[in-house]
Amino acid sequence: MALADAKEKVLLGEYMQILEDPEGDWTLDQVRDQFASRFRNSESSTLNFGFTRSTFWLRIAVDSTGVDGSWFLVERHPILDELTLYAPDGEGNYRALEVGDTRNFDQRPMKHRAFVFGLETDDPGVKEYYLKVRGKGALNMMPALYSAKGLVEFTYLEQLMQGLFYGSLVIMLVYNLLLYLSLRDNVHLHFVMFLGGIIFFNINVSGFGLQYLWPETPKINEYFWLSTYVITLALALYSRQFLQLAQRFPRYDRLIKHYLMMVGGAFVLQWLMEPPWTYHLSTVIALMTIVLFSWLGWMVWRQGFRVARLYVLAWSVFLLTIFLFAMGNLGLMPYSVFVPYLPHFGALWVVVMLSLALGDRIRFLETERKQLALEAQQNLERHLADIEQMNRDKSMFLQYISHELNTPINWIGAADSLGQDAQGDQDVDVWAMVRKGQRRLTGIVSTSLRYFDLSDRNQPPPVGNCQPMWVLDGILREQAGRIEQSGIAVRNRVSPNLRVNASEGELQEVLSIGLDNALRFSAEGGSVDISSEVDVPGGYAEIRIRDEGKGATAEQLEHILEPFFVMGSRHHEEGFGLSLAMARVMIEQVDGQLWAQSPGPGQGFTLHIRLPLSDMQAPRA
């Protein structure tokens, strides 16, 4: 390599020759003499040997003829365990300069995070240099020659970029720590923990830790894998709270817990293993963690949790950068100049995206809080309306009960006054009136209890496949005597193919109530027509019970389904005003509807019962 033809920088990889020492016990003399013919030419500007137990020797011939100024040999990969430069001393011998991240920083000829060696360029001619490198981790090298000017420019530019990177991380760490102290939201504390792990990892693999923080304790460099477990734990805690897994996605929350148990086992195993297996294990854990949380964010986002979109964007890019970094370290892809900086780019991207995600989360939670507050207000208003309606029902019920109790009491008083003097048929009539009052009291109590039981039950009745035509047919057979005695024609025109989802017992009760009302308010010689209509696209069927009786006014129709409403005078009506109210409750509790129609007084009355179709309903119905 002729320095006179170079500019300020020369990449040495393609100019070097490589020799592998499998046992690692060859001396320089053996390499120069006995094994000199085994050197092979390099084919790349960067050297990637992957994880290996071998020692590698590199040979480079440098011609300093016609060179002015100083030149330096620089190895920019700062995490090589042991690196020794054998430089000629001008007297036919070689001096050894031993550096590496397992050796004290003070041993380096230049106080630089990279490995920098000054070359003898004052004496012209060709000089042969040897580099011996070995380590427990990945052996990746980017050797280069720099002039004094080139080295200064490279150092300044690198320090600027690294300063921006670490400054950004520290600013975000302090900012989130202050947010935690202000808001007491643990998600910010977990993010601070995550940032701490990212910073420790990067200052370790970049060489700044050995240069500035522990120059006399290089052993610390062997434990950079601890940051992997700190980051994994912090990320799991952060993700559980940020994505609200326990509340929204309990299945994924259980998955995270099981994964943390597995990581805990790997952490214990890590202390029992020797390099390079510890590096392999930590790399696998890092890749699994990033893949898992990238997938998790994607799944949560797909299920409608909008806050996860920035989370997914952050981890997708970070996954790519760490994957490429791991592939480069494992020797599965070319180790270019950009590979050592991939964790920096990925970490900075994640920090920015997750910080934005935290802000987005705050906005989302605020919107959700407002929505919940609005729903709570609407629920409160609805409950207040229900309470007011219950109060009105209670008042009506008390008035009704008061009236119903007074009437039989008056009858019983009249029976007592008449019973003192009257005999014969009068006695029979009096005691018949007493028995009628007793039956009415018993009826109002039992009917009221039935209505309130239906209204207060928490779950709807079990539903099944019902055929209304056959239910109605059974009712008509049971009441055949009453129908014949009333002189009213009842026609069952419900389709025999009709099938609906309902509780058969309660459907029978509702149809009996509708038929009873139609018979009670129809005149002799009239008719009651019961028909059905199916809306297959709508998924429901409608049963109509139509009579030609007394009908109802528009005002009466507004209240006819309310409890204790009776059309006409209570003194002369048989009912208690609860039958249609009970029917409405039973139908609505199986997702149906019930309402009444009438053209006006004396023009008949129609009761509509709408129920959902059964899955077995044939389209021809």
TrEMBL record:
Keywords: ATP-binding, Coiled coil, Kinase, Membrane, Nucleotide-binding, Phosphoprotein, Transferase, Transmembrane, Transmembrane helix, Two-component regulatory system
Domain Histidine kinase: 400-615
EC identifiers of the protein: 2.7.13.3
Family matches, as Pfam families: 7TMR-DISM_7TM, 7TMR-DISMED2, HATPase_c
Protein name (database record): histidine kinase
Lineage: Bacteria, Pseudomonadati, Pseudomonadota, Gammaproteobacteria, Oceanospirillales
Annotated catalysed reactions: ATP + protein L-histidine = ADP + protein N-phospho-L-histidine
UniProt keyword RNA-binding, yes or no: no
GO terms, molecular function: kinase activity
Source domain of life: Bacteria
Record field: transmembrane: 164-183, 190-211, 223-243, 255-273, 279-298, 310-332, 338-359
PROSITE patterns xref list: HIS_KIN
Organism: Alcanivorax jadensis T9
InterPro entries per UniProt: 7TMR_DISM_rcpt_extracell_dom1, 7TMR_DISM_rcpt_extracell_dom2, BphY/WalK/GraS-like, HATPase_C_sf, HATPase_dom, His_kinase_dom, HisK_dim/P_dom, HisK_dim/P_sf
Cited PANTHER family: SENSOR HISTIDINE KINASE GLRK, TWO-COMPONENT HISTIDINE KINASE
Coiled coil region boundaries: 362-393
